[in-house]
Amino acid sequence: MGQVQTRVYADQDRMLPRVLIRGMVALVLATLMIATYARVTDRPLVSTPPISPVVAEASIVIDADPSSGAATVHLEDGSLLASYEAHEGGFIAGMYRVIHRERTKHRVAVDGPVILQAYENGRMGLIDPSTGWRADLMGFGTDNAEAFARLLAKTQEGGNT
Description:
Layout: H1 18-40, E1 54-64, E2 71-75, E3 80-84, H2 90-106, E4 114-119, E5 124-127, E6 134-136, H3 142-157
Antiparallel strand pairs: 1-2, 1-4, 2-3, 4-5, 5-6
């Protein structure tokens, strides 16, 4: 007696076309080749934010509830700068999550200050001195950058809310 072969049948409507799968594999391989080439040849970074002099900066401490979006921002001396309800602090709470993750990865204290900077060219940046992490806030849209611009303006006028 011979072996019984079991055939697997697939519904043709539910299968991806082979040309699509091959195209996806080619795209992944091309991306890896380009990244490897850039890394091996030490190509300079070309899509970085423009360098501009700092015109204002403040050291702030962000604390947030990542699940709700509520956030508070304090100055380094502990005085309250701003408090956001769950529906108001989404982007600031999101940045807190990123900073918290980076600090956890680097095994440093998660409650330290970050530096908020405004540059001469109108851009803003957030820098974590304990990990070296930085973000150009314009990359997240003008509304989100404005949330931090208002915080920086409050630190410059010295008022607490």
